[in-house]
Structure formats: C-alpha cells, structure tokens
Amino acid sequence: MDGYEHIEYVPTQVVTEYFRYVVPEIAIYKIDGIVYPSAKEGGKNCCVLFFDNDECKEVFDLDKNDITSTEILLS
C-alpha cells in the first residue's frame, strides 16, 4: 500500500458533506442521511447517517445502560 488508498473516497466524502451541510441551508427540509449504490459491491448499498455520537443516543432513544462498545484488534 502506498498511503493513497483513501483518495478514491474523496468524491464520495465531498458529495455526502454537501448533502449534510449545504442542502439543509438551501432546502426547507433536513436530511438525516443518504443511501447510494456501492461502487465496490455490485447490487449493494452504502448508507451514511448525519449525526454524531451524542445525537445518535437521541435518534435511537438510547440511555447509558444500552450502549456497549467492543474493540476489535486486527493482526
């Protein structure tokens, strides 16, 4: 790997940030996320949700006791 693997995702990042930050400023509605076809997995979709960790708790009505985390170590 040459360190440039992430560059292929830049166009997707730009488009998703446009929908997250620009569209709500010019539209009359709020966008909570988008679904689009995967470029890597034919016939499958990718999903981007527009909220941070704190907002996630509210959106999914989670309380502190409902939230768990798991660390996955890859070798």
Overview of this protein structure:
The protein has 75 residues and is of the alpha+beta class. The chain has one domain (5-66). It is 32% helix and 13% strand. It is built from two helices and two strands, in the order H-E-E-H. Strands 1-2 form a two-stranded antiparallel ribbon. A hairpin with a 7-residue loop joins strand 1 and strand 2 (45-49). The two termini are 16 Å apart. The model has no long low-confidence stretch (mean pLDDT 77).
Question: What is the compact description of this entry?
Answer:
The protein has helices at residues 10-26, 53-59; strands spanning 33-37, 45-49. It is α+β, with helices and mostly antiparallel strands and 75 residues long. The protein has a two-stranded antiparallel sheet.
Strand content: 5-15%
Number of DSSP-assigned strands: 2
Largest sheet: 2 strands, antiparallel
Q: State the end-to-end CA separation.
A: 16 Å
**Count of all domains:** 1
Average residue-wise pLDDT: 77
What topology emerges from the helices and strands here?
Elements lengths: L9 H17 L6 E5 L7 E5 L3 H7 L16
Antiparallel strand pairs: 1-2
